[in-house]
Write a structure and sequence with these properties.
Layout (H helix, E strand, L loop, with lengths): L6 E6 L3 H8 L4 H10 L2 E5 L2 E6 L1 H21 L4 H11 L12 E2 L6 E2 L4 H12 L2 E5 L6 H15 L4 E6 L15 H19 L2 H9 L3 E5 L11 E5 L7 H8 L7 E6 L13 H9 L5 E5 L9 H9 L20
Parallel strand pairs: 6-10, 6-11, 7-8, 7-9, 9-10
Antiparallel strand pairs: 1-3, 2-3, 4-5
Helix pairs in contact: 2-4, 3-4, 4-5, 5-6, 6-7, 9-10
């Protein structure tokens, strides 16, 4: 590599402790990053100097940014985190099989993650049977979950798709609302149905629902069931109580997959009740076979105004302001 083709950029870490975690046992992670991306990395305390081609150094910066984010959320790194992040920043899907795309229609329509965080999410969906995805509005949590479930349904990997959402505003007591069950819960499941009808023809969705291949339910109606060979999506999981979340997660049968999405800044439970999503993320962190993906403002892919709105609600400490009635104890 000639000097003219080489750039050098510093990366300042928060502490020596963060550096030790990022470097891995005997600097194993550091060597993996260096060898995979073809860069030279010199570490001095909490300062990294990355040298290489401009493209390679940019990829290394993205990799360290993603790894630091995972470390802050999970409190540690494992070798799979490093491998997955490197494949993501290089454009892979975590299995060495090309871009992280999802094929969601019979005509071959593809969806591709638009941010590094979304790529981590897709990789988690492909490699785990139970995935939690937590992040603000507009990050694609629900849309990508439905896309993955549809792709599984189309490929025959699952036999059934179950869409679930807490009906908090109706207190899970839907009898007083007009219409049949579908009509009663339609307002609460509309975001899931909107995503579904973008990927399947409306008539096909109706046929699937009539044949019980696609089922939509309020969370309370999951009690007592065991679902085999199904993909079960719980949307707005922050509005489930801890007891409801436990009930929901234990519905998982053989050959099934569960995806739980939620936004901890949008808790509608009474403030004396702890969010089941916050409880599950804390309780299940580090358990093998379970992936917990955190998305943030950088992953917002709606109108650019959405990102500005989210940022405007942050206070000086970086936390998102919430109305007192939306606070759930222990839900930070």
């Amino acid at each position: 590599m000639s000097d003219l083709a080489t750039v050098s950029r510093p990366i300042t870490l928060d502490s020596r402790e963060e550096a030790v975690s990022l470097f891995g046992p005997r600097d194993q992670y550091l060597r993996t990053i260096r060898d995979t991306l073809g860069v030279r990395i010199v570490a001095r305390g909490d300062l990294l100097q990355v040298d290489g081609s401009e493209d390679a150094v940019t990829l290394a910066e993205r990799a360290f940014q993603q790894l630091r984010s995972i470390l802050r959320k999970n409190g540690r790194l494992v070798s799979d985190d490093v491998r997955n992040v490197l494949e993501i920043v290089k454009g892979g899907d975590g299995r060495g099989g090309g871009p992280a795309t999802l094929t969601v229609t019979e005509s071959g329509k593809h969806l591709r993650p638009r941010t590094d965080g979304q790529s981590r999410y897709v990789q988690a969906l492909k490699s785990h049977d139970l995935v939690f995805c937590v992040g603000p509005a507009g990050t694609g949590k629900t849309y990508l979950a439905v896309a993955w479930a549809v792709s599984l349904l189309k490929s025959g990997a699952i036999k059934k798709l179950v869409l679930v959402r807490p009906a908090v505003e109706a207190g899970e007591r839907l009898g007083f609302l007009p219409g049949d069950l579908i009509e009663k819960i339609n307002p609460y499941l509309r975001p899931l149905l909107d995503a579904l009808t973008e990927m399947l023809e409306a008539e096909q969705v109706k046929r699937y629902m009539a044949n019980d291949i696609i089922e939509i339910l309020p969370l309370a109606y999951m009690r007592g069931r065991t679902l085999n060979g199904a993909c079960i999506i719980l949307d707005e999981g922050q509005n489930a109580t801890a007891a409801q979340m436990k009930m929901f997660l234990t519905r998982m049968g053989h050959g099934s997959k569960i995806i739980v999405t939620g936004d901890m800044t949008q808790v509608d439970l009474p403030r004396t009740i702890k969010s089941g999503l916050a409880d599950a993320v804390h309780r299940l962190k580090g358990i093998e076979g379970i992936a917990i993906v955190h998305l943030d403002q950088a992953d917002i892919v709606r109108n650019p105004l959405v990102q500005r709105i989210v940022e405007a609600y942050e206070d000086d400490s970086g936390r998102v302001r919430r109305h007192p009635d939306q606070l759930a104890s222990g839900s930070r």
